[in-house]
Design a protein that fits this description.
By secondary structure, the protein is an alpha/beta fold. The protein contains ten helices and eight strands. The chain has a single domain, classed as Metal-dependent hydrolases (TIM Barrel, Alpha-Beta Barrel), CATH 3.20.20.140. The longest helix has 16 residues.
Length: 290
């Protein structure tokens, strides 16, 4: 089964998407399961990982309710304030729902570049490990040195690096990102999403713009620890789902079929759905090829 390892839903009237304003253009509207389903069918994708887009527990509960009613959603990566005194209790409460497969603090939006190193995170991280949850690292290149310390501090925590840590593709500035992301990849409990790169490249991106960063991610993580994600609907600001899926085919063309299928689904199943999430037999299978 092919899996989209990174997609979002939102409903504007909920009111907790502070980053989502009219300036966001085509994505400043509601996006719900009925909007994504035709895209998944067109690309023979049978399941998704639904990822938070607002820093509230209320949004996580909203996503879990959507997931429960949406057969193609295999799991939810939600949000909890990991620095809160009651974080471990909140995590335990939410983790009682097996559709919760991970948590994602929005590190890229924090004013404190040292946030990952705060000692007060320890009880929350311990609770994540205890409940088998993945830590989605939404970071920028400047955060990678702190992420390295974080990874060494919590070696039992499974970590998925979102969007390849957002390399500066548009500026053609891939250093020191190259060395830092290679150091992150050297930690065996880390994975990386092949997602969000077209947004970093800008609306006029070409396949050649993407090749250097994708080649580096393949080299350091290997095809066994890369997970393809659409970053839909954010991807609609940079060409759309179809264009990114077509680009992926070109970028992975040199891989053997087994390795391509790992990136396009098998790795997401291993990273997120080993102990949690919707059982495979309950997922909607992808439509047959015609």
């Amino acid at each position: 089964m092919q899996i989209d390892a990174h997609q979002h839903f939102w409903r504007l009237d909920r009111g907790d998407y502070g980053w989502l304003t009219p300036e966001a253009g085509p994505i400043f509207r509601d996006f719900l399961p009925r909007d994504l389903e035709p895209l998944l069918a067109r690309h023979f994708i049978g399941a998704t990982i639904l990822v938070q887009a607002a820093p509230t527990v209320a949004e996580t509960e909203f996503l879990l309710s959507l997931a429960a009613a949406t057969p193609f959603v295999a799991g939810v990566v939600g949000w909890v304030d990991l620095t809160a005194a009651d974080a471990a209790l909140q995590i335990a409460r939410l983790a009682a729902n097996s559709l919760l497969v991970g948590l994602r603090p929005m590190v890229q939006d924090t004013a404190d570049d040292e946030w990952l190193l705060r000692p007060c995170l320890q009880p929350a991280i311990a609770a994540m490990v205890r409940h088998g949850l993945v830590f989605d690292a939404l970071v920028l290149p400047r955060h990678l040195p702190r992420l390295l310390v974080f990874l060494d501090r919590y070696p039992e925590l499974r970590v998925v690096l979102d969007h390849g840590a957002k390399p500066e593709i548009r500026e053609a500035r891939l250093d020191p990102w190259r060395a830092d992301v290679a150091a992150v990849a050297a930690r065996p409990a880390t994975w990386c999403k092949l997602s969000g790169l077209v947004t970093e490249a800008g609306a006029a991106w070409t396949l050649d713009d993407l090749r250097p960063s994708v080649a580096h991610l393949l080299a350091v993580f290997g095809p066994e620890r890369l997970l393809w994600g659409s970053d839909w609907p954010v991807v609609e600001r940079a060409g759309g789902y179809d264009a990114w899926r077509a680009a992926t085919a070109g970028l992975l063309a040199s891989l053997p079929e087994t390795e391509r299928q790992a990136v396009l689904g098998g790795n997401a199943k291993r990273a997120y759905l080993g102990r949690r999430g919707r059982p495979s037999e309950m997922l909607n299978p992808a439509p047959p090829r015609r």
